[in-house]
Amino acid sequence: MTARQTLQVNINIKSSAATESMSIGELADRFGLATHVLRHWEAMGLLSPAERINGRRRYTTAHIARVAVIVRGKAGGFSLEQLREVLDAPDRPRRRMLLREQHAELERRIEEIEASKTLIEHALDCEVADFTRCPGFRRLVERLTDTADVVPLAPAEQAPPGHAGVGPSCRS
Prior knowledge:
Blueprint: H1 16-20, E1 22-23, H2 24-31, H3 35-43, E2 51-53, E3 56-59, H4 61-75, H5 80-87, H6 92-125, H7 135-145
Antiparallel strand pairs: 1-3, 2-3
């Protein structure tokens, strides 16, 4: 009688490409997007599935980075056309030029947002019933608009007595 030998073979039926592959729903879920958004981006030329299996789109982990760029780019003010241009730039110098332009635009928008925030903070803290008549608010507006065209307060529009337009309730 011969000894029976058993050969044990571990077979992973999922290839590494398959484990990196995901459906459109799985990719969309990673970013909290609806699948129609990814389909729209495909139509715009921003995204294309790695392959189709049984007619279904399959994406790889490489698509995660591309979708992240699109999501963050849109949040930063890029249009889909601008994003396509950046992602498909023919070379590094062209891509850097496009990114520098967008960076300058973001810096400009950040300055505008900071100016708006300053006005809102003043209005929140101001004790004048109509904060637009507050001398401190008017000075802020004048500084933020950087013009001499701001109309000074008329005597009837003066802040209430004791309100000098300074202090914790009136940032200037």
